[in-house]
Amino acid sequence: MVEAAHCMLCRIVRGVLRVDSVVNTARIIGFVTQHEPYARGHCVFFPKRHAISLHDMNDEDLAEILPVIKRVATALDLKTYNIILPNNGALAGQTVFHAHVHLIPKWTEADGLRRAGEPPAGIDQTGIAQRIRERLRII
Ligand SMILES: [Zn+2]
Description:
alpha+beta; five-stranded antiparallel sheet; binds zinc ion
C-alpha cells in the first residue's frame, strides 16, 4: 500500500509537486496532465484526501468530483470525450494509487481514447445481481 507521504497526488496537494491546475476546491484538484496526455486538454481530477480506490473515497468527495469535471468539460466546449473513473487495483490497470478521474477530450478521430479490445466471450453473469442485492442490504 502506498503511504500518503510518498503519494504523487498527495505531494501535489502539499505543494511539493507543481501542476497546471484548472480547479482547486476544498476537496478536489484538477489539472492538465503533462504525463502521457491522450489529447489536448486531457485533465486529471482527484480528491485532496488520500484515497487509494473509489471505494476508499468519502461520499462528499465523490459527490463533488463529477460536477467539477462537468464544469471543465463545459469550459472546454467538449461534445465528445471520455471520463475514465479510477482504475481500482493493479489488476485493473491502476498505477497511481490515489484515486483519480481522467477527462480525455476527443477532438478528432485520431485524438483521445481508442477502444483497445473486445469484451471476452463466455462471461457468466448468473446469480451476480442477486449477490449484489444481498450485499447491499448489509453494507
Ligand atoms: Zn495520495
